[in-house]
């Protein structure tokens, strides 16, 4: 009887140990996840949205420095959105297509050296970059950021209030983008948000100030 109780106790103990080992293994796998794998698409998304936000807001602020009409600011922002999205998409397409050409050329060289080349090529083809997908994602990210100052200024007629709302909306979006990028990449959130926020403020201030200076000089 005592032997049976001992066996049951040993079995429960072994099961408990196995459960603990499995749990520790899962925790280690989570801790050892390489967040740098996210860096490529995360960098493109955050930079695209940030570029759309800052460049469009700066354009609107620059035009607003010499022309306070709401229509002029909105048209400038919309033109900046379309032009910037097209530029980002084309740049990303060309860049990724160049990367694709390099990888395809490497696969062809490997095909001549590896005996089982067809099987290896089929596996590697799944990891080839997609230029169209990259271009669409870049344009979408840019447009998402550019919509913030456009929507913020669309329904405000009074000039000073409009400018203040644009700055406030852009500042909140900059902090959000900085926090999101840091959270997904497991980087310091405060430092990332502050860096992006200060950079956006500088871009808007320089554009506003220089455009105001040139406009007031009569050029």
From TrEMBL:
<keyword id="KW-0813">Transport</keyword>
<feature type="transmembrane region" description="Helical">
    <location>
        <begin position="134"/>
        <end position="156"/>
    </location>
</feature>
<dbReference type="GO" id="GO:0005384">
    <property type="term" value="F:manganese ion transmembrane transporter activity"/>
</dbReference>
<dbReference type="Pfam" id="PF01988">
    <property type="entry name" value="VIT1"/>
</dbReference>
<comment type="function">
    <text>Vacuolar Fe(2+) uptake transporter.</text>
</comment>
<keyword id="KW-0408">Iron</keyword>
<keyword id="KW-0175">Coiled coil</keyword>
<dbReference type="GO" id="GO:0030026">
    <property type="term" value="P:intracellular manganese ion homeostasis"/>
</dbReference>
<keyword id="KW-0410">Iron transport</keyword>
<feature type="coiled-coil region">
    <location>
        <begin position="100"/>
        <end position="127"/>
    </location>
</feature>
<feature type="transmembrane region" description="Helical">
    <location>
        <begin position="196"/>
        <end position="215"/>
    </location>
</feature>
<keyword id="KW-1133">Transmembrane helix</keyword>
<dbReference type="GO" id="GO:0140315">
    <property type="term" value="F:iron ion sequestering activity"/>
</dbReference>
<dbReference type="GO" id="GO:0005774">
    <property type="term" value="C:vacuolar membrane"/>
</dbReference>
<feature type="transmembrane region" description="Helical">
    <location>
        <begin position="72"/>
        <end position="90"/>
    </location>
</feature>
<keyword id="KW-0406">Ion transport</keyword>
<protein>
    <recommendedName>
        <fullName>Vacuolar iron transporter</fullName>
    </recommendedName>
</protein>
<dbReference type="GO" id="GO:0005381">
    <property type="term" value="F:iron ion transmembrane transporter activity"/>
</dbReference>
<keyword id="KW-0812">Transmembrane</keyword>
<dbReference type="InterPro" id="IPR008217">
    <property type="entry name" value="Ccc1_fam"/>
</dbReference>
<keyword id="KW-0926">Vacuole</keyword>
<comment type="similarity">
    <text>Belongs to the CCC1 family.</text>
</comment>
<keyword id="KW-0472">Membrane</keyword>
<feature type="transmembrane region" description="Helical">
    <location>
        <begin position="163"/>
        <end position="184"/>
    </location>
</feature>
